[in-house]
Amino acid sequence: MNHTWHSKAACQGLAPEIFYPPTDDDADAAAAKAVCAGCQVRESCLEFALAIREKDGVWGGATERERRRMIRQRRRTA
Ligand code: SF4
């Protein structure tokens, strides 16, 4: 798997707690999503998290609950 996107991650150097909010609720995840929204490798990051079935945290602007939904939708349309 290609990991070169890591070096362009907008979250580099930021406090990891931002990306591991206590809940998946919008209010808790908003700070992380705001950073992801401006990240130039958001798609690669999201695809990576989906591929490894990452359970925790916000990746590619999506919470765990949102990623689970994406996986289900993809299965349905596959
Ligand atoms: S999309 Fe978000 S979590 Fe992924 S690399 Fe960019 S800032 Fe980090």
UniProtKB/TrEMBL annotation:
<dbReference type="GO" id="GO:0003677">
    <property type="term" value="F:DNA binding"/>
</dbReference>
<protein>
    <submittedName>
        <fullName>Unannotated protein</fullName>
    </submittedName>
</protein>
<dbReference type="Pfam" id="PF02467">
    <property type="entry name" value="Whib"/>
</dbReference>
<keyword id="KW-0804">Transcription</keyword>
<feature type="domain" description="4Fe-4S Wbl-type">
    <location>
        <begin position="10"/>
        <end position="69"/>
    </location>
</feature>
<dbReference type="InterPro" id="IPR003482">
    <property type="entry name" value="Whib"/>
</dbReference>
<dbReference type="GO" id="GO:0047134">
    <property type="term" value="F:protein-disulfide reductase [NAD(P)H] activity"/>
</dbReference>
<dbReference type="GO" id="GO:0045454">
    <property type="term" value="P:cell redox homeostasis"/>
</dbReference>
<keyword id="KW-0805">Transcription regulation</keyword>
<keyword id="KW-0479">Metal-binding</keyword>
<keyword id="KW-1015">Disulfide bond</keyword>
<dbReference type="GO" id="GO:0046872">
    <property type="term" value="F:metal ion binding"/>
</dbReference>
<comment type="similarity">
    <text>Belongs to the WhiB family.</text>
</comment>
<keyword id="KW-0238">DNA-binding</keyword>
<keyword id="KW-0408">Iron</keyword>
<keyword id="KW-0411">Iron-sulfur</keyword>
<dbReference type="InterPro" id="IPR034768">
    <property type="entry name" value="4FE4S_WBL"/>
</dbReference>
<dbReference type="GO" id="GO:0051539">
    <property type="term" value="F:4 iron, 4 sulfur cluster binding"/>
</dbReference>
<keyword id="KW-0004">4Fe-4S</keyword>
<dbReference type="GO" id="GO:0045892">
    <property type="term" value="P:negative regulation of DNA-templated transcription"/>
</dbReference>
